[in-house]
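In this supplementary section we document a worked example of the pipeline. Step one takes a protein sequence of length 216 as its only input; no multiple sequence alignment statistics are reported here. Step two produces a three-dimensional model, which step three serialises into structure tokens for compact storage. The input and output of this example are shown verbatim.
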Amino acid sequence: MEILKGVDVLAGAGNDSNSYIIDGQLLVDSGSGEWFARAKEYIAGRYDTSRLKTIVVTHSHYNHAGGAKKFRDWLKATVCVHEKEAEWLETGNGTCAEMSGAVARSMTADKRLREGIGIKTDNFTFRVIHTPGHSPGSLCLFDEESGMLISGDTVFWQGPGRTDMPSGSDTEMQESLKKLAQLQIKHLLPGHGMPKTGSINFYIKQLLAQNRSNKI
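The serialised model returned by step three reads:
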């Protein structure tokens, strides 16, 4: 389903994350891979797959990155992950696959991302924003011109991401929300649930105000 011009969402089923396709060139999050055949059919019927060469995972948890190897093998694409979780992706340790009743698929991290790196498509220039809290290497992608934030599991319309999972941190989540509150966000594309438009900055500032007196 196209939600903005050039921005397509494959809504996650069950515990799987959403996957976003940007300009037919960038795939953000792969889900667990359980629904790979369905996603492959959809993508192949809609896009020139020879142009879809970059895969970014917002973090290495299984329900966001477990299918990345299948997509890479199919598309001959480059898989990108924050440098703090590259080892998780490569060993399977820390991916929380067991929470989905699965065994982690280890794979090579082709490119290690860090704060400020740019990722370009035809119509968007994303900046990597390191937003730990849900996990040490969680990241968001922000396009300043459109005000679009792909937020992974850092923030949803219903609240911030969980911090009670292994390697989660209340303190780091609070700092990440402070960082996001400085951006001019017009569109929120979360890792789970439907995207939202409007009042995003006000909403994040509300979360910060609530969390000053309540643990996340």
